[in-house]
Design goal:
Shape: elongated
Oligomer: single chain
Number of domains: 1
Structural class: mainly alpha
Strand content: under 5%
Number of helices: 5
Length: 172
C-alpha cells in the first residue's frame, strides 16, 4: 500500500515562482558578502595601513599612497565595490561608503597622484599635510557607515524568514 501526502501533488510551484526565494536569498548573500569585503578594506586601512603610512617620511608617504591608489583599481576590488551597490542598494553603504569614496576619497587620491616624485621635501610635506588627515577622517566615516550596513545585512540574513504558511499549518 502506497502512502501519498494529500495536496503535495497539487502544490507544485511553477519554476519562476519557485526561484523567487532562491534569487532573494542569493541577492542577500551577495550583498552581505560584497559589503563585508569592502568594509574589511576600509577597516584595514583605518587600523593598519594608515598608522603604518603615518610613520613614513613625506616622500615615502606620498609615493606609497600613489602606488596603493593605482593598484586598488583592479577587477577584483571593483567587483566587490560595485557589487555591493548592484546587489542591494543599502542607504548606509551607498551614502556612507560608495558616495564618500567616489566624491571625496577618489578626488583626493587623484590630486595626490599629481604630486611628482621628484618634488622638493617641502612640497612633499605640504602634499601630505593637505591629504593625510582629511583622507583618514573620510576613510573613518566610510568605515563606520559600511560597517553599519554590513551589520544590517547580517541581521537581515539572521532574521530572514520564509513567507507563507508552515507545511503543518503552524506559523513560521
Amino acid at each position: 500500500m502506497s502512502r501519498t501526502l494529500i495536496g503535495a501533488a497539487g502544490r507544485k510551484a511553477s519554476l519562476p515562482v519557485a526561484l523567487g526565494p532562491a534569487v532573494r536569498a542569493l541577492t542577500l548573500v551577495g550583498a552581505t558578502l560584497t559589503t563585508g569585503l569592502v568594509t574589511g578594506v576600509f577597516y584595514a586601512y583605518a587600523v593598519s595601513v594608515n598608522p603604518g603610512l603615518a610613520l613614513q617620511p613625506d616622500a615615502g608617504y606620498v609615493s606609497a599612497m600613489q602606488a596603493i591608489n593605482r593598484e586598488i583599481q583592479n577587477p577584483v576590488f571593483f567587483l566587490s565595490f560595485f557589487g555591493a551597490v548592484l546587489t542591494l542598494l543599502s542607504a548606509l553603504y551607498v551614502g556612507g561608503g560608495f558616495l564618500l569614496t567616489v566624491f571625496i576619497n577618489v578626488p583626493m587620491n587623484e590630486e595626490l597622484a599629481g604630486v611628482a616624485a621628484n618634488t622638493s621635501p617641502g612640497e612633499q610635506a605640504g602634499a601630505r599635510a593637505a591629504y593625510e588627515d582629511p583622507w583618514n577622517f573620510w576613510n573613518g566615516a566610510r568605515t563606520v557607515f559600511s560597517s553599519l550596513a554590513f551589520l544590517a545585512l547580517i541581521g537581515a540574513c539572521l532574521l530572514r524568514e520564509e513567507r507563507g504558511p508552515h507545511p503543518e499549518g503552524r506559523p513560521r
